[in-house]
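Example for tutorial group B:
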């Protein structure tokens, strides 16, 4: 019985020794592979970080110019700016610090990464499709059937956009990053392998590779990249949030305090061909004798919260407008009434005509 116990103790020692050979190898390579994965994520982080930074910069500004409302001049400077910042912050593979570190590598137990390169550029392939449509088509009435399009009517091109010149499809920014990744001599390249060894396969080959932010290197080059579409609400500036009172007697005349907003809305109106014909005008002229406004003219009114959303006054027109003013301004004293000012012209719905 004692001989059996001695044999058991010896067998455990042998099993432990043999198990440690495999266990230590697995642990070393587990640490190495974990380091490769972690350091590769830092390269990915260096490419994505400047994309989010780019969303903080202005893309365009609204101008008081009817022909060219939007200015995208600042857009081209975004990519170089975020690229330079990311390159400085991630040169040491740690973007948490707010100052540039002189270190250009990161060394761990079995793995080393160095020479971080971040590249960002304006990218027209990152795009969105603006709403497209033809201008409203006018049909000639046909008895008992749908109307038909008159010959030669200009309904525009299918690729026309009502937002052209206001929100241009200028694209976005794309970024990529790469670094040199290698295994260190601390990871043994040979360990009990060969014909007389415990392992039949070679223990390890020192790793030398290019780590890419996305995908794998093809022909030694990192082709993958990340992109983001940029744009901002150009009407958020104080200079385009001014008042714009209604001016029915002055179509197509911009309000002095908010020209950029006015011209932007007018540009959309123009792109849609303005009014779809003059049927309403003809209707009013036939039954009343006159049309109060030019239905093809552009009118826009905007009042901010500071005005309690109430028009205090209406533009001066005919002298008799003073009679209607307390009722048509929408003010506090506004009380709807069927009364109308005296007129020598018939008004629709009134039996006195």
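The residue assignment follows.
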């Amino acid at each position: 019985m004692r001989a059996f116990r001695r044999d058991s103790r010896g067998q455990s020692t042998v099993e432990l020794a043999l198990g440690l050979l495999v266990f230590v190898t697995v642990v070393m390579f587990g640490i190495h592979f974990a380091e490769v994965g972690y350091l590769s994520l830092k390269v990915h982080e260096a490419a994505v970080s400047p994309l989010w930074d780019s969303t903080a910069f202005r893309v365009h500004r609204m101008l008081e110019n009817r022909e060219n409302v939007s200015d995208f001049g600042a857009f081209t400077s975004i990519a170089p700016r975020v690229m330079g910042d990311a390159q400085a912050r991630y040169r040491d593979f740690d973007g948490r610090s707010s100052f540039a570190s002189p270190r250009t590598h990161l060394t761990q137990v079995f793995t080393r990464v160095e020479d971080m390169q971040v590249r960002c550029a304006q990218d027209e392939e990152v795009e969105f499709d603006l709403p497209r449509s033809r201008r409203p088509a006018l049909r000639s009435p046909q008895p008992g059937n749908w109307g038909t399009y008159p010959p030669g009517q200009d309904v525009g091109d299918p690729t026309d956009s009502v937002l052209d010149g206001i929100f241009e499809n200028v694209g976005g920014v794309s970024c990529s990053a790469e670094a040199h990744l290698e295994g260190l001599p601390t990871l043994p390249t040979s360990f009990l392998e060969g014909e007389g060894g415990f392992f039949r396969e070679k223990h390890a080959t020192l790793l030398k590779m290019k780590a890419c932010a996305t995908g794998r290197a093809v022909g030694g080059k990192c082709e993958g990249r990340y992109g983001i579409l940029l744009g901002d609400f150009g009407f958020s500036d104080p200079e385009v949030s001014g008042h714009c009172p209604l001016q029915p007697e002055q179509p197509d005349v911009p309000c002095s305090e908010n020209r950029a907003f006015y011209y932007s809305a007018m540009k959309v109106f123009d792109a849609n061909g303005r009014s779809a014909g003059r049927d309403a005008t003809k209707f009013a002229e036939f039954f009343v004798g006159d049309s109060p406004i030019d239905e093809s003219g552009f009118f826009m009114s905007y009042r901010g919260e500071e005005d309690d959303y109430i028009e205090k006054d209406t533009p001066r027109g005919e002298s008799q407008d003073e009679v209607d003013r307390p009722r048509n301004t929408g003010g506090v004293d506004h009380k709807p009434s069927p009364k109308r000012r005296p007129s020598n012209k018939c008004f629709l719905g009134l039996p006195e005509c």
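DSSP finds five helices and nine strands in the chain. Compare this with the pattern of hydrophobic and polar residues in the output above.
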